[in-house]
Amino acid sequence: MGLTLTEKILKSHIIDGELVKGTEIGLRIDQTLTQDATGTMAYLEYEAMGVPRVKTERSVAYIDHNTLQSGFENADDHRFIGSVCKKHGIYFSRPGNGICHQVHLERFGIPGKTLIGSDSHTPTGGGIGMLAMGAGGLDVAVAMGGGAYYITCPKVVKVELTGKLSPWVAAKDVILEVLRRLTVKGGVGKVIEYCGEGVKSLSVPERATITNMGAELGATTSIFPSDEITKSFLEAQERGDVWVPLAADEDAVYDETVTINLSELEPLAACPHSPDNVKSVSEIGKLKIDQVCIGSCTNSSLLDMLKVAHILRGKTVHPDVSLSIAPGSKQVLQMLAENGALADMIAAGARILESACGPCIGMGQSPNSGGISLRTFNRNFEGRSGTRDGQIYLVSPELAAASALTGYLTDPRTLGDMPAFELPEKFKINDNMVEPPAPEAEMDSVEILRGPNIKPFPQTSPLAEQISVPCSLKVGDNITTDHIMPAGAKILPLRSNIPAISQHCFTVCDAEFPTRAKELGQSIIVGGVNYGQGSSREHAALAPLYLGIQAVVVKSFARIHRANLINAGILPLTFVNESDYDKISEGDKLELANVRADVIAGKQELVMKNLTTGTEIPVLCELTGRTKDIILAGGLLDYTREQLK
Ligand code: MIC
Ligand code: SF4
Fold first, then answer.
1. Of 495, 537, 559, 561, catalytic
2. Is 273 a catalytic residue?
3. Rg of the Cα trace of the chain?
4. Which of 62, 64, 121, 542 gets mutated to test ligand 1 (max ligand atoms within 8 A of its CB)?
5. What would the pLDDT profile of 505-521 be if each residue is shown by its tens digit?
6. What is the pTM of this model?
7. Which residue among 278, 384, 475, 613 is least enclosed by CB atoms within 10 Å?
8. Where are the beta strands (DSSP E) in 440-599?
9. Active-site annotation holder among 30, 36, 64, 173
């Protein structure tokens, strides 16, 4: 029986467990990446493990999220990360060099290798045939220390692409179509593997747009084969030597198949407030817009920018619209500057932003009150843009640029003939903003530079004998990490200070939650389906840990967030009967008697008593050998320390 591409890479990297779907497996990790908003915590955790030099083939730290620097905090974090990199063998991509996923694809990714990153859009690397996954910072720290990365051995979904995209229909429309069909929870426990004739018509940046936004499916990752197109891309990046051909076997067996005829796709948009709320532009109809933002790790490649510049050339941005553009990397920005495309954007009235995440993570460019904003980004969760009432539509760069000129949601097919947009034969190569680490002989003399906002990892404790605490918060379905731990320009600078950032935990849902939880001392959170979707931020587990959360009981979890809860030593439980969700109200006293003994005994079904109503609720505690030990130890840091002893 033939293998899928996913299985081939898993097979060559498995170091613990067996390739049996649904079971936990440990993978050798070749490369890691971090970004600054999750990086400071990840490097504090790495330091706490006491491994002098990283054991991966390549680890890179990027500064791309917290670049607004409205106080000393972010700059201190950047300096701290830079010094850790120098000392411990990590490459440091300085602020200004670009968005982690864009730069990693250009300069560091290698087909067939494994990559984990402390950012949920790490699957961008799947665009060149890497098995690239988002993870919590602590998992990345462990991988840098040479430890395995554990995942549930995934199912593999085949997305068979046929046909060819029509002019002005984009790779973004492909992933929006996948999201429309599979939804934001359709990818949980699965890898999405693209194949078929249609793959040959997609360039690497287009493939990377698709794998990037595959994160919104909740998938473990997404992957394309590594073929001649991958080879030309890597050669144009002067990295042809790292190319290897990779594809699934002809007779590979998949768990599910989805077929998409690229020729039939039309321009789409994800409407407020979920990436799977997808409609065609014609269905949405005439929509007046206030703002257009082009950029983010989904759509900031040179190819995207060249299309945008072409559309804007010689025109003026509509008077009612603010257009911002953030090219994804220094390489992209410099090439746009040199070939005149940047001048076209500037002349049209675009507001050029630095090569960073920017508005995608609420770092500026919030829309006006009730404003309608078209963005080429990947997430449109409520509040993420920095305002409560912003209406965010996720679209392709072509659609965004066309609309910026008319002031209305505009089908880019009205632009007339589309010229052939080709990737250059040679990209501009200049890695002068990537600092290599100090040579091993000099690492001891490197001083780590800390700032006053950088506080240690919160206090953890081993799993208690019993949990008997109130429910401090009850939330509904599809709670995102942006609800649990909001980001944006005001809160992001607190990422290195868990006590301070905890004061914002869940405030989007309930402004009183942090104070109430702290007053209660210890408590439990109750939630619905797909709890914790979105970001990899472990702060969405560390803040609840700091606020005394002992367990989270939900209908179902998103993958990375569940792992982050376990890593933080918080017990993740699911209802055996989803309807039991209705049997708990906020304030009810809940009890898990003998929980420690039950977990040690490997009991999968526990009984949670609602002492307030007198009901008994069966809950699943699906912990395997390793995750069980992590929970018993009080989290991954304590567990790893014990292991290293
Ligand atoms: C995001 O897009 O939500 C982020 C900000 O990149 C996060 C990481 C973070 O919260 O720092 C992600 O996607 O993991
Ligand atoms: Fe940055 Fe946005 Fe990409 Fe997250 S999704 S890494 S915030 S550009």
1. 537
2. no
3. 24
4. 121
5. 999 999 999 999 999 99
6. 0.98
7. 613
8. 467-474, 523-526, 549-554, 571-575, 589-592
9. 64
